[in-house]
Specification:
277 residues, alpha/beta, Rossmann fold, eight-stranded mixed β-sheet, two-stranded parallel sheet
Length: 277
């Protein structure tokens, strides 16, 4: 009997420690922001000079972004929900390439990144994502908005898609849920079990009923390729997948070059045609 009580006590201690560690990881290991002036902020150095934009969240945090406008008539607008490191300047070269292929891009920095105010937090980023989408609707018709979720930005793009009108969703090097990511990154510790309902990207995408393009590199050293495949396999909406055999994390545009731009352009064009009344 004493042995049983000791075992139960030890199990409770382990569970508490795991829970505390999981909370620590979620609060301290999810965000690696680069604030201004880190990055290439000289707008004249870009082929298509970005336009500065500012907008405010419902909790009064002022966010900064760039719009890189395509010269193509009636160009769709990507709203880019970027990953947990860097800032918009590290995504600008890809956005420039997309603009050259007929797609305008709204890059914005999460709170605490770049020139945006505040400090990042898991729940607060939902407010940032909603504010970016609302700003995009001031620029174009919702049917011409493309929601692009890169890495940690994936579930936030999916959440916006679940509750708002858009043309389609693009998910690059992301994950099906925070639970799946936690279990994969911290195995054999089952930390994902402590975040069962957190950031359920796949579930939100299925609820959105929009076409989804999933892109993932087999050599992704941050979000294992198996998670991208699991996300794709779990989708019950019109879907496509671009697999890069050589790309690491968020490296598909550089690794695939023209194939990346052509795939994105064709997917958006087909989705817009399907969405037309």
């Amino acid at each position: 009997m004493r042995g049983l009580i000791a075992f139960a006590g030890a199990a409770v201690v382990v569970a508490v420690l795991l829970y505390a560690y999981a909370l620590f990881v979620r609060r301290n290991s999810m965000f690696y922001p680069e604030r201004h002036p880190l990055g290439m902020w000289d707008k004249s150095a870009y082929p298509i000079p970005p336009e500065d934009v500012f907008f405010t969240t419902t909790d009064n945090v002022r966010l900064h972004g760039w719009i890189i406008r395509s010269r193509a008539p009636n160009a769709p607008l990507i709203v880019w929900f970027h990953g947990n490191a860097g800032n918009i300047t590290s995504r600008a070269p890809v956005a420039e390439g997309l603009a050259a292929h007929g797609v305008s891009v709204l890059l914005f920095d999460w709170r605490g990144y770049g020139r945006s105010e505040g400090s990042p937090a898991e729940t607060a980023l939902f407010l940032d994502a909603a504010a970016a989408y609302e700003f995009a609707t001031w620029q174009t018709n919702p049917r011409d908005i493309v929601l692009y979720g890169e890495s940690l930005g994936g579930p936030y793009a999916a959440h916006v898609a679940r509750t708002n009108a858009a043309c389609c969703v693009i998910i690059e090097n992301s994950f099906p849920s925070l639970s799946a990511l936690g279990n994969a990154l911290y195995a054999p510790l089952p930390l994902g079990w402590l975040a069962l309902n957190a950031l359920p990207t796949t579930r939100w995408l299925n609820a959105a009923h929009l076409p989804v393009l999933v892109m993932h590199g087999r050599r992704d050293e941050v979000t294992p390729f198996a998670l991208g495949q699991e996300l794709f396999d779990g989708l019950r909406v019109p879907k496509q997948m671009l697999v890069s055999e050589t790309a690491g994390h968020s490296g598909i545009p550089a690794a695939e070059g023209s194939q990346y731009f052509a795939t994105v352009e064709r997917f958006i064009e087909a989705s817009r045609k399907h969405a037309s009344p």
